[in-house]
Amino acid sequence: MYCEQGSGQPLSNSLLQVELLPEQQQEFARLLETPLPELIAEAAALRDQGHRCITFSPKVFLPLTRLCRDSCGYCTFAQPPQPGRRAYMTLEEVLAVARLGAQQGCSEALFTLGDKPELLYPEAAAELAAMGYSSTLDYVAAAAAAVLAETGLMPHINAGVMGQQDIERLKAVSASQGLMLEGVAPALAAPGGPHWGCPDKEPAARLATIEAAGRARVPYTSGILIGIGESRRERLLALHALRLLQQQHGHIMELIVQNFSNCERVAIALEAPVVAEAESSVG
Ligand code: SF4
Predict the structure, then answer these.
(1) Tell me, what's the pLDDT at 12?
(2) H or E element at residue 222
(3) How confident is the model at residue 188 (pLDDT cuts 50, 70, 90)?
(4) How far is CA 269 from CA 73, 156, 259, 274, in A?
(5) Close Cβ partners of 125 (under 8 Å, ≥ 6 residues apart)
(6) How far is CA 282 from CA 230, 257, 260, in A?
(7) Measured from the CB, is residue 77 less than 6 Å from ligand 1?
(8) Which residue among 66, 74, 75 has the greatest number of ligand 1 atoms within 8 angstroms of its CB, and so is best to mutate?
(9) Can you give the residue ranges of every domain in the chain?
(10) Domain named Radical SAM core: which ranges (predicted)?
(11) How far apart are CA 102 and CA 124, in angstroms?
């Protein structure tokens, strides 16, 4: 059980049977007490020790489907089915975008999609069946294979929570995969929280996916969201869980710290103290 010593609050992770060691508790306390300008200076020094070369990868975005069985309160990507509009990009549309990207010098094709929409929306299941696929993961595997074979772009696949077999199947047709851990705070999934009613936002399921990618030796992107109702300590716990997975498998090539944007298109409205706390954490 992953828990803080003495807190009695398990963090629903069947993979990591660990508790914070005394020195880790001390490090957490130090990080929580250090003023932000000092933390920023420390982070900058660490960055300078490790990386002074900034690179980027020109890429095309392929939103294979905007349907999703989850309904995260801050999401601006997912949309419900619309009459007269396809649930999925066709293979021809995918290849047309990828070819244009290749012509413009792109090297990567980023597949973005909702999680398992066919389990919630009959329209999605019917459209997949009409194309000859039984799941969104089947279709993304076929689309990535086509992009790789016909354009040479390297697929990066963000296809949600999945098991080892699907990760290995997608590994065969991609250069890398990704799944944000987002957070481990239990309150996020409570009634009224941003992950209420979102089965794929269970932290243990997401950690299990990231762990399975490590076992499969898939170059991986993950990270956390900040400002969606978690505490600073819970952010550290999420980063600590990712650090443990990285120490075990060495597969996390990119770690994203993404701030929540409280714009008018999102469903949740955060209280002023939450917003102020998040703002104070990013300087
Ligand atoms: S799982 Fe992703 S795509 Fe689906 S609602 Fe949540 S944030 Fe949006």
Answers:
(1) 36
(2) strand 220-226
(3) very high
(4) 9, 32, 14, 10
(5) 118
(6) 14, 10, 11
(7) yes
(8) 75
(9) 22-47+56-282
(10) 54-283
(11) 29
* Positive or negative torsion for Cα 202, 208, 214, 217: negative
In tens, the pLDDT along 216-225 reads 999 999 999 9
CATH for 22-47+56-282 is 3.20.20.70
> Contact at 8 Å (CB) between 257 and 223?
yes
C-alpha distances in Å from residue 189, one per residue of 25, 117, 242: 25, 20, 20
Which residue carries 């990712």 as its tokens? Answer: 242
Longest Cα–Cα distance in the chain: 59
C-alpha atoms less than 13 angstroms from C-alpha of 231 in its C-beta half-sphere: 8
Q: Between vectors from CA 253 to CA 226 and to CA 186, what angle results, nearest 5°? A: 30
Spatial contact of 158 and 113, defined as CB atoms under 8 Å apart: yes
CA atoms of 141 and 134, how far apart (whole Å): 12
Burial label, 99 (beta-carbon count in 10 A; 0-12, 13-18, 19+): middle
Q: What gap in Å lies between CA 35 and CA 39, rounded to an integer?
A: 6
Instruction: Tell me, rounded to whole angstroms, the distance of Cα 184 from its chain centroid.
Output: 13
β-pair type (154-158, 59-65): unpaired
Pocket test for ligand 1, best of 113, 115, 228 (most atoms within 8 A of CB): 115
How does residue 274 score in pLDDT terms, banded at 50, 70 and 90?
low
Distances (CA, A) of 35 to 39, 95, 108, 261, 283: 6, 50, 39, 24, 11
Tokens of 171: 């590994």
The token pair that represents 122 in the structure block: 């009959």
Ligand 1 site, residue 115, Cβ cutoff 6 A: yes
- Give, using CA atoms, the residue closest to atom 2 of ligand 1: 114
Amino acid at 212: A
